[in-house]
Write a structure and sequence with these properties.
By secondary structure, chain A is mostly helical. Helices cover 70% and strands 0% of the residues of chain A.
Chain lengths: 289, 348, 318
Amino acid sequence: MTTAATTRSAPSHLTRLKRRTGGGEALVGFLLLGMLVFIAAGAPWIAPHDPEAIATGRVLGPPDLGHLFGSDALGRDVFSRVLYAFRVSLSVAIGSVILAALIGVPIGLIAGYRGGRVDAMLMRPLDLLLALPALLLAIALIAIIGPGALTVLVAAALIYVPILARVVRGSVMVTKQMPYVDAARARGVAERSVMIRHVLPNSVGPALIQGTVLMGFAIQIEAALSFLGLGAQPPTPSLGVMLSDGRDVLTQAPWVEIFPGLAIAVTVLALTLVGDGLRRQLDPRGMAR
Amino acid sequence: MRALLATPATGRVLDVQRLGVRFEVQDDVVSAVSNVSLTIDAGEIVGVVGESGCGKSTLAMAIMGLLGSTAHITGRVELLGRDLAGLTVEERRQVRGDRMSMIFQDPLTSLDPAFGVGDQVAETIRAHRTVTPAEARARAIGLLESVGIPAAATRYSDPPHRLSGGMRQRVVIATALANDPALLIADEPSTALDVTIQAQLLSLLRDQRDARGMAILLITHDLGVVAQLCDRVAVMYAGQLVETATVEQVFRAPRHPYTQALLAAQPSAGLARGSLRVIGGQVPDLSDPPPGCRFAPRCPLVRPECDSPPELLAAQPGHSVACWADPATHPGAAATASSTGAPRGAAA
Amino acid sequence: MSPRLRYVVHRLLATVPILLAMSLFVFLMIRLVPGDPVRTMLGFRATDENVATIRTALGLDQPLLDQYLSWLGGLMRLDLGQDFISKVPLTELLSERLPVTLELTFLAMGLALAIGIPAGVIAATRSKRTGRASTAFVVASISIPDFWLGIMLVLLFAGTFRLLPPSGYTPFAEDPVANLRYMILPILTLAVAEAAYILRTTRGAMEETLGTPFITFLRARGISERRIVYQHALRSAAVPIVTVVGIQLGVLLGGAIVVESLFALPGVGRMIVTGINQRNYPVVQAGVLAVATLFILLNLVTDLLYGALDPRLAEADA
């Protein structure tokens, strides 16, 4: 007869950290994201050169120690330009999601909690916004308001409001069935308090996850719109504009095109990893998309 | 495959020798089944009974070869005299659904919701026989009728959710018996059904056994089912067999303390005495089971010998038990409460 | 009426208010521009006279409701007005440009399905290593901006290897081979990210289905693994795949706008972007209307496909 031979060692610190952040990749994502935010915030101090400084002697220079990402058609340091442009992109992305959350989360909360007519009244107009493809809606808004980084922020926020509202509504509808909500009501807590202090904190998980996904989209949308000339206008630096300009010198100086794109890719990657990690921790049942 | 495993009219259908199943889960190794041996002859219905989590379903899946790669299987399983471990993966697949079949507890989740019930029977036929679609369909209709589904031809294309629970389980049985297997393993076939339907289903199984002469391995936690249907029974606890006997022997004179406690805990027994008897304590953690008898922590008859594992030994012809305290297998052991352990069974 | 038919009718009827609401929004687009849209359109050529003339010509001096109704009436007759700058009737412009966008979108989605579904099945059924590799591919594809990928492809195929042209277009009817030579890179650019989404969805649905009891029962009956995967599991995966296709069509149409500009394809997307840059509002309006209508109709088709795929959905809804 065999006995089951088991040795269960205490989990190492690394394993515990991995589990708390929802997996090894998520940890990488968090760290990466933190680094990127830090870099974006510190661009003015980190950038080795003035992003606008024209240096005719260094036109289309390849990457080297002094110019990590090389130089563009006007001899400007690509690395510094990427830093400043990245700052703008990240601000737009974060700003749009925050703005969308400020509007969408309350709507979703009320719609999900009240249900019935209030729900229909709040969600119907939002659903109409979803009837248009996102980028098209953004372009239409830019057509009306005029181009610019701020417009992109507002347009993206507008697109995201229905998505966030829907996610919050969904998880609120589940949370409000929970026994502790009934218990709070039975204690005589006012409806509004119940909503804000009991239902809301327990429903934000999926919204948080969706938020990271939307941030990733926002960076891509901002880049795409700027690429088309509809986003950030000069002198505001923009990764999308850099990508557009880089095409002219693509074969001679591919680094002008590659690095801004990589910056976007790495950021979206970090956000995706964080989102997946959060999903594993907060929303194993999959209420966010 | 028929040539590979011809059905004898009588004789040993299933021979399980010292079967063990270990799972590797993250950092732990779970010993789900340990040293289980049993045999079933043609026409016999053998029940494996025990609480949830005792490993009886794992045992069934291991015999069928349906456990994934996380399972490590030791021991030997012989079907119709042939060692199943010696077969290739493809040969094992051919054996399943043809020479041995298994049915599960919940008929609704057992059937593909997008396919008609008749099609699913026919699919099983066509997986193992070369027949034309029309022939398969005809046979399927015949099978459905033989398990008691009226107007089988019209219901052939109905998806499972249109049938009642009892009807669905009949369809499941029809698919399992489509190719006339020598062995049918039934894992809690009636648990999900109403009591009245349960009785019908069990008598259906008995009728099929009578008609086809197949062996049935019945997994259940319900001693009432065992009493109705089985010829012999094996009692499982924490992955091990503690007692095997004929149904008569087990109900009349159970020898293992666990079996006795199980029988005493049956509601019908309790009502006669005016109270329900509970088995105190908890099932052991199978990733770290006790080294000796796994029932020892809860046993009223525990003694020092119980630190080493007891063998399943014959107390009488056809009645074996694995217990140090059993006087027939361990002469000299007194079947009384020892000084080291207090009786744990308590009246609720 | 059978439940399925009722489902179809419901969906058709539900589409009408959406189309109307969208048309209202598009209609209001010009009127929402801050300042005077006519002056903006005319730019430096604006004088009080021609501003007034243009305004009357565009019907902008009428009450709002009348404007909307006459605009809708024009839509019914397929009269959308004219390109403000070139004076070409917009219906004509659209009929030239819409096929380009359609070709791009459909071929990209088709390619994505052709790659994504088999890859998803493989990722779900093979070893852990394949699974990890496919996750890496998916994450990478989703993170890379698709137009950047397009530019990299141009660098590779048009720049380094000189296999394919970097931009340009020939209609399919004229010269199929040339058409495909121009379209391969744009289609590929869009298809890669789409294939990643489809792969992910297929894989997830397959993995979930393969864990359900009826699959175990199929194995217990000795049904071949191949049949289990392709006839049973994939069927269950069809609904989530259709869902993601529906969602991604919107993303794809948006991406097509960017890709058209990137590869200088004469599609509706590029028409819209050029229109915005030229302040050519009627063109922008017509383009947005066309793409939005396309999207709504495609979603309708997706919904109808649901009903066909899973009879329980149709029955529950009706």
